[in-house]
Design goal:
The complex is a heterodimer of chains A (322) and B (329). Chain A is 64% helix and 0% strand. Chain A is mostly helical. In chain A, 49% of the residues are buried. Residues 1-27 and 311-322 of chain A have low confidence and may be disordered. Chain B has helices at 2-28, 34-43, 48-58, 66-78, 93-128, 133-145, 150-164, 185-222, 225-232, 237-259, 261-275, 280-289, 293-321, 323-327. Chain B has 329 residues and is an all-alpha fold. The chains are: A mainly alpha (322), B mainly alpha (329).
């Protein structure tokens, strides 16, 4: 899987010449600036480290957790010990193991939704801005409507009618409902690009619209597309975990949200097993923070006005995020 | 005026989409899940009229075409007929919802207004003192809190202040066994006590958005020429901060306020769930687990209408405050 956020910093932006809206800059300088920005930005560094750790855990859970996450193999309600780092729960399952193995489910959902929703957002946002006219109007209404309908209650309804969401149901439902915010941002940036000279040149050369969008427009928006991916992935983590927590996921999947569901079902807080409920929630919070920090850092990189003071420089044509 | 009409039109369109989604969802799902529910209604020996209304609501056993089903569905909804609740049979859905709505309005209303005022204030100061200690701590902190799941904050607060320190009650809206609802001081105090932790949870999780959007727009505004002009004139800093910069920067924050109401609502649902707070969010989840689909649909519609209405108000307020929107486009 291509994971734009976990790679070497210089690769995260897709390539040299293509830094958000600053097409005038000479290739080498823009390239160097981006690399420097990601490395020197502490938020980006912390976010990347957090994500890499979680991805490694999701790929190789058995390295640090030997116990089965589902087997009721131990004495229930054991405290913290070297054998059970976070103790065992009401059913005698090893909690640490459950969290380690549960990482995979949440990351699959995050990346699947992140990629799919960003794909839809790019398609709709850029099509609206570039095609203009009636296309722009109708796609705009669609985006705005989805933007204001409260998504979480909608997801609850969908999951309820689907009689509990398997991972696939969760991914589909969250993807279809949550692309609108990023589509709107992408559209605004694409609008500022529409009348640029390099696009005009491509039109004069007689390039096809599809070619212009794919080869000329999309690469200049890489920073915002990566930011969109991060936003959507963060939503996916929070929405999916919340749905699993309230019992609308599949209660048999191993995931943080499901662990929370069983903890809540057994009143873990009230019966002296607080770790059962607090630990998976903390995992969600840390993973979410990783996505959010990276996202904020990309915001700072893409929008120079927000950078820490000493680096402020006025630049035209950068996107505005509201 | 044109702007206001456009926003009103958008409100109507969005409402229509929400109604249509509500209509289509049960019909799109494989093996219409409402069928099982209708059997339960029959076991409760519901009257034929009630059953018929429910069949229209969910498209079961109906010989009508989809279009005429849609027509009668819209008719029922627009006349305020949301059906009969299954779990509270035979109480109409509207009555059931009415008992929960005040709890949520009070809780979410107070917490949101506080979060908006505090968050915007912090955002203004943070942008004004760019690079100060405050500005280097506040934004990153709240980037992180905005990623924390609402229910987790609620759980931590329950654990610390409810179960360990016993400072505040952590379950329900009031002491059901010892207190009777009424207009007296003890009940009032009881309600405040119970609402404290849920309100703080909501405040912590939503305040970050206000701080960050306000700070970021404020920074853009501070670079404007009229702010530089004000500085050149030698106006006092406080006056520039509030009368020149913040006054203009607050408008996007107002729109953002409306936009993120959806998130506040979803936060409230989960927080009510953790606290067993007797509001609409908790009721929605009860309805889901009890397969009480009429109640569930009614609550979804209510939440959607409330959010859309708040957005409409914010839009109109923006138009009133910002002359540019009135002439734009």
């Amino acid at each position: 899987m291509a994971m734009p956020v976990s790679g070497v910093p210089t690769e995260t932006v897709g390539g040299p010449r293509q830094w958000g809206g600053s097409a005038q800059l000479p290739a080498g300088r823009a390239f160097a600036r981006v690399g420097r920005a990601v490395r020197s930005n502490r938020k980006a560094t912390i976010g990347t480290i957090l994500l890499v750790i979680f991805i490694l855990i999701a790929l190789f859970p058995w390295v640090i957790a030997r116990d089965s996450p589902t087997q009721d193999a131990y004495t229930p309600q054991l405290g913290i010990s070297t054998a059970h780092l976070l103790g065992t729960n009401h059913y005698g399952q090893d909690l640490f193991s459950q969290l380690v193995w549960g990482t995979r489910n949440v990351l699959i959902i995050a990346f699947a939704v992140g990629l799919a929703a960003t794909g839809i957002a790019v398609l709709i946002g850029i099509a609206a801005a570039y095609l203009g006219g009636i296309w722009d109007n109708s796609l705009n209404v669609l985006t705005d409507v989805l933007l204001v309908i409260p998504l979480f209650p909608l997801l609850i309804i969908i999951a309820a009618y689907a009689r509990g969401g398997t991972t696939l149901v969760l991914i589909t439902a969250i993807t279809l409902t949550s692309w609108s915010y990023t589509a709107r941002q992408l559209r605004s940036q694409a609008l500022t690009l529409r009348d640029r000279d390099f696009l005009e040149a491509a039109r004069v050369r007689g390039e096809r619209k599809l070619y212009i969008i794919v080869v000329e427009v999309i690469p200049t928006m890489t920073s915002l597309i990566v930011a969109s991916f991060l936003t959507n992935a963060l939503y996916a983590v929070l929405f999916a975990s919340s749905l699993q927590f309230i019992g609308l996921g599949d209660p048999n999947t191993v995931s943080w949200g499901t662990t929370l569901y069983w903890a809540q079902n057994n009143a873990a807080l009230q019966t002296g097993e607080p770790l059962w409920a607090i630990a998976p929630g903390a995992c969600i919070a840390v993973l979410g923070a990783g996505f959010a920090l990276l996202n904020y850092a990309f915001d700072e990189i893409g929008n120079p006005a927000l950078r820490p003071v000493r680096k402020v420089r006025q630049m035209k044509g950068t996107e505005q995020r509201v | 005026m044109r702007y206001a009409l456009r926003r009103l039109g958008f409100f109507v369109v969005t409402l229509w989409v929400a109604l249509t989604l509500n209509f289509l969802l049960p019909r799109l799902m494989p093996g219409n899940p409402a069928l099982a529910m209708l059997t339960k209604f029959r076991d409760l020996s519901a009257t034929p009229q009630t059953l018929h209304a429910l069949e229209i609501l969910f498209g079961v056993n109906s010989q009508q075409s989809l279009l005429s089903q849609y027509g009668s569905y819209l008719g029922h909804i627009l006349t305020g007929n949301l059906g009969i609740s299954l779990s509270e049979y035979p109480t109409p859905v509207t009555t059931v919802i009415g008992s929960a709505i005040w709890w949520t309005l009070g809780l979410v209303g107070v917490a949101t207004i506080l979060a908006f005022i505090l968050g915007t204030g912090l955002g203004i100061v943070s942008a004004w003192r760019r690079g100060s200690k405050l500005d280097s701590i506040v934004p990153p902190t709240f980037v992180i809190t905005s990623a924390i799941p609402y229910f987790w904050v609620a759980m931590v607060l329950v654990l610390i202040f409810g179960l360990t320190l016993h400072w505040f009650p952590s379950q329900g809206g009031y002491y059901v066994t010892t207190d009777t609802p009424g207009l007296n001081f003890t009940f009032f105090q009881d309600v405040i006590n119970h609402a404290f932790l849920p309100a703080v949870s909501l405040l912590i999780t939503t305040i970050g958005t206000w701080i960050l959007t306000m700070r970021n727009t404020m920074i853009t505004t501070l670079a404007e020429d009229y702010v530089r002009m004000a500085r050149a004139k030698g106006l006092p800093g406080r006056r520039i901060m509030f009368d020149y910069a913040a006054r203009n920067a607050i408008l996007p924050n107002l729109t953002g306020f409306a936009m993120s109401l959806g998130f506040v609502v979803s936060g409230a649902i989960l927080i009510e769930y953790v606290f067993n707070y007797p509001g609409v969010g908790y009721m929605l989840l009860q309805a889901v687990s009890g397969e009480d689909y009429p109640l569930m649909q009614g609550l979804f519609l209510l939440i959607t209408v409330a959010v859309l209405f708040a957005i409409l108000v914010a839009d109109l307020l923006t138009a009133l405050l910002d002359p540019r929107t009135r002439t734009a486009r």
